[in-house]
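Ex. 9. Protein: Cobalamin biosynthesis protein CobD.
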Amino acid sequence: MLSVYHMTAFTIGFVMDLLFGDPYWLPHPIRWIGRLIGWLDRKLLGETDGAVRNEAAEKKKGRWLVAFVLLPVLFFAAAVLFAAYRIHPAAGVVTESVMTYQMLATKCLKTESMKVYKQLSEHDLCGARKAVSMIVGRDTECLDEEGVAKAAIETVAENASDGVIAPMLYLALFGPVGGFFYKAVNTMDSMVGYKNDRYHAFGTAAAMLDDVVNFIPARISAMLMILSCCFLGNEFDQKNAMKIFKRDRYQHASPNSAQTEAACAGALGIRLAGDASYFGRIVKKPYIGDPLRAVETEDIRRANRLLYGMAFFGWGICMAVWLCVTAIVW
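Predicted structure tokens for Cobalamin biosynthesis protein CobD:
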């Protein structure tokens, strides 16, 4: 019976994400996790400018960061869920649905990227640069229209795994506790997992753990994106998506980040990635995909169609696996 409650809540949470996204006014646990990470960062690492650095000590502090973040987050998620189900199964399902909803970001990704699409469609390059700066880490002031569109597409493609399929898999397998675990790891990596002067040692543990927890989900996400091409019309090239995925999926410093980006580039027949400016410095990056045509504004909308296609396939596969396992067990 608990599994029925769980998958019911899983489905309700998925639908809530598609309907409501991430309203800015709604308190969100990821923001709380981010504040905890920021506070621990200041307490454990402190100021590094001009300080004598000890790489081994900083790596150890980074491991403490991971522990000090995960333990309270997992305890909180488990305690809230346990208390809700103790009150009543209906309260448990409602609570689990909301927790599931808050771990997914399908509509949020679409909403933010379509803001870029809207500005580009209105030929407002300054507005488009500002909109895309809200969802990417690179410098956007000098991007042309194609560069802005590329940045938005890359964000949708990469976060299709981090923001949708990966948390969905952890939620399906382990419930909200698994979802909170995944998002805590992912948030740590996004905040301290940089190979810059401050975090190259301190962020090692968070970055390595993020690589581990994303290894399988990133590849499943790419496969779902390629599968989606078969059902979304002739604007998407499934064969080329598979070709570019096989060829370019490791064209990134991370073993996971280029998986969905390669599939997306191949599906759309465009070239993504390449050199980008961060904090005024050009960072050399390999290209992903072939420039069969120029990147255009409409590709942002197409990337979102891929995102939604893989989200529905991800949910459907999770439900199908659950039904099969339930049938066998019962």
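Check your answer against this statement. The chain is about 70% helix and 5% strand.
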